[in-house]
Design brief:
Blueprint: E1 11-14, E2 24-31, E3 40-44, E4 50-53, E5 59-62, H1 64-78
Antiparallel strand pairs: 1-2, 1-5, 2-3, 3-4
Pfam family, one: DUF1918
Domain DUF1918: 4-61
InterPro entries: DUF1918
Length: 92
């Protein structure tokens, strides 16, 4: 089992196997440990609220670099240009 690690600006993605559960994403705006392990302060994209989160097994971190590559692939596939949001830095 690998340990979850994150940096400020990374995305926390929660995806459940249950059909009634929806995917939830948020930006990691606060770290409580210097090694990047949980818990995190997460600004949820659906509510814009910041919550203290200790992610479960249905969560993973999508790092900023992975997001850049995904956005580049998406632009190449659709021909559209997306402007990524700048990370909101939060001191802990």
């Amino acid at each position: 089992m690998t340990t979850m690690r994150a940096h400020l600006g990374d995305q926390l993605v929660v995806e459940s196997n249950r059909s009634e559960a929806t995917r939830r994403e948020g930006e990691i705006v606060g770290l409580h440990r210097v090694d990047g392990t949980p818990p995190y302060d997460v600004r949820w994209s659906d509510t814009d609220e910041v919550a203290f989160v200790f992610p479960g097994p249905d969560a993973h971190v999508q790092c900023t670099e992975q997001r850049k590559h995904a956005e580049q692939r998406e632009r190449g596939a659709s021909g559209a240009t997306r402007v990524p949001a700048e990370p909101h830095l939060h001191e802990v």
